[in-house]
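#onboarding

Welcome to the new folks! Below is a worked example of what a typical request in this channel looks like: someone posts a single protein sequence, and someone else replies with the predicted structure as tokens. Don't worry about understanding the tokens yet, we'll cover that in week two.

Example request:
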Amino acid sequence: SSDLVLWLAGCVAVHAYAMDSTPTRLAGIAGLAGLACLASPAFVAPQGQGLRSSVARESGLVADRQTQEAPAATATQLLAVAACGSAAAASVAAARRRTTAPRAAVVRQAYDASREIGACDPLLFWDPIGFCEGGSKEDFDRRRAVELKHGRVCMFAAIGMLWPDVFGKFDGYLSPSQGLRFEDVPSGIYAVTKVPLEGWLQILLVAGLIETQLFKDQSFGGPGFAKYGAEPGNFGTGYWGRRIKDPVERRLKLTTELNNGRLAMIAMAGLLIQNGLTGQSPIEQWQSGHISPFNDGQGFFAVARRAGYDASKELGACPPLGYWDPFGMMAFQDKEKFERNRMLELKHGRICMAAAIGMFVPDLFGRFPGYLSPSEGLKFSDVPSTIDAIYKVPTLGWLQIFAFAGALEAKNLAFPRDYGWPAFFGQVGKLKGPEREKKLLAEINNGRLA
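Example response:
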């Protein structure tokens, strides 16, 4: 029995130290101690002289005495094992509690910008993109400083878009060395092409001195480097030199500036786009009635109308809309550009007609049996009949599709739009007269619908 106990103790020790976790090792050590207590009688040295001879002579008495003392010894050993087991369980539980004890987490709370200036009627706190959901106070200050600076610049720029045409330009030369007069500079975005390089350097230098020396603006460098102060955008200049003491009046003035800047940013975007498309300043547009840049071939679309091509007699101009060109695209297109657009229209229409059929056929008539890709174990039945099918087709399958489509197009390079009837049989131009026009018109309209 002592050999069995020793073997169990060895197993417990090996298992305990083979484990990585400290609680398991503590439990193993406690169990090992309990087994040692259980095996302690096997290692107790005999007491007294001549014990072997007396045991040999009095074997019967020894046997009777062992029988009587066995219950007491067994009880002692069981108590020792129970105590060690309890210690092992307590150590495991304590270690587990230490292991699973919740750690203090550092939670970064987003800055609440709903009470800042700018949250006003009619939209109140309006953050559709969610810039303030995870931002800190520093993030908000940086964005507010940028918003104020852009708004102030755009307010000046909006005035500059209107002032020269309303109150006139300066007299004299903007650049005497280049013979450039102020009146030679247009009143819009095209002025950037007239100002010489030295003029741009002077503008940037003066703007930089105003920001860094006059206003002492330190909001340069971006996150981690810029300093925004207690109030972003406040350079201490006051309101026309006057420091507003009343907090209600001050908040009203700051809100007004912020909202005017927001309106100016949107207005400048519209003014610059309109100016770029029409080639005229806002005042010139209003005076000439040139409001839409799409219907008269001016400005950005002022290209030469080489042959005055009339597309109203081309295929596609049919009831119920007839010749329909709401954007005036043909006002600046010649026959060559029309032919190119018609080829693109036909190709896109043909692809969409085939694609529309592909959206219905698999669910109506079933899919092919077998595997689409045997190497990947992909069956035709595994491919859905929606746009999600593009995620199922393997890369090699896409390469095959592109190769096949390219072969079809290369086959018909000689006839970019007319591939013959029927296709691939060399019977180009078989349809004639009204039948041909009817078929081609039906193809255009079906493609547009698809």
